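tool_call: predict_structure(chain=1)
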Amino acid sequence: MSAKILNILILNSSTDGIGLIQQALITGDMQSNCLHVTSIGETLNMLTTRHIDVVLSDHDLLQLNAKDLLEEMAKQKLDVPVIIFSGHVSETEAAVLMEMGADDCMMPNNSVRLVPAIKKSIHAVENRRRFNQTQEVLQKIEERFQAITSNLPGVVFQFLLTQNNQLSFPYVSEASETLLGLSPRQLMEDPELFSKLILPGDKAIYDRLMAMSVEQLSTLNWEGQIQVKGDSDIKWISLRATPRKMPDGEMLWDGIMVNITRNKLAEFEIARSRERLAELSSYLQKVKEQERARIAREIHDDIGGTLTAIKCELLPCIDTMARSPEFYQRKSASIECLVDRVIDSTRRISLDLRPGILDCGIAAAIQWQANEFTNRTGISCQVICSKEEILLDSDLSIAIFRVFQETLTNISKHADASHIEVSLVEADGIIFLDIFDHGCGITDLDMDKQDSFGIRGMRERCRQLKGFFHISGIPNKGTKVEIRIPIKDTDHQSLHRTSLNSTLEKTLQSEYVTMQKRAS
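tool_result:
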């Protein structure tokens, strides 16, 4: 410090006092640049305009009061050490001045203490400034840490294990209230509250992984279920914490807990969907093989048998035996009948594979299928179309037609319906197909059956077309099937929103109410 030239401001109106101070500085071998002022106003001006290392102030009750100086410096937050150097200060007044912020008080006859007092006060100010800077940095770090933890989607925590196996939470973020239903203070006061939330089936795995982390200093990774007190829902949480050995032998984990309930439910739903798709694929493959077998059987038994009969009718006509014209006429008539039968069988099998009526448009195909259903089952099926012709590509027409066919098949098997009402509408680039049967009404139990492949197949077919499929039933009133399929590539959510909010949807809902009234 002696190598540094200090700027010392002397507040003193006495020439003898100033000389005494300068002599003390020279005696103490302190290199300094002394500035002289005689009033508090001049002192404050110097402190705000120049760098001053220390202020040496007189205290004369009549002319110069050091209390006023200390008060003004406190108001302006000037952190410069002040040493009272005066012969007019009593012990009581010195104590008061020290409380007000003076770094030291001394008498002129004790000037040998002046240089050590200056060094001590400057060192104290430097320490105080470093401490304040450190506090500011720590406060900023704390604010930043709190901002980060408050925005993290989980609970940040520290978990401590002492040498005598005592557990504690030195730190828990505020998010614990939301995730665990426990405040940070509750967890800090009673660490066992967390383990009590874990369901019994997952508690053993948690304890085993914790013991492994303690033994091997390995990262603790655990996923399990908890149930918050007073909450009927069960939450899935993911806990990840990294341990470190403390100098005193204790172990401290820094970690985070995150709510993964939504992800877990999505995983379960995906797994269940995959299982259902596998079952549906197996079922469709089985149905395809059955259909192939049926077609092969019909071709063999019907067409093949008829062709064999034609061959048998032709054999007598190609031998060398003479016969009457009437014989050949009878054979020709018989062969003609057999050929007509082959043509009818071929047309019937072809219609089963793909109805030619689809070439006339989806509206005509739906109307034709409804008439065929009525003729086959005797159940009245009324169709209302918004347009006589709805232009669709071939694949989309076939898909909608097959869904309609499957719906009618389910109705004939399970609905016990008296009559059926069908609405086919095209609006805003979307096909709206509604089928309402006046029957027994499907139940949730019926839809959740493992072997309900018909409904599952229709739903998956609509999903592949980025469409919307919904089925609902009213006991003893009937069942309504709602199908919404975009003609072009339309966002699924937009499609769902349009189907619910458009004027057309309101009209369909009104028709649905009318159907219910008719059923009752």
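agent: DSSP finds 17 helices and 15 strands in the chain. Proceeding to next step.
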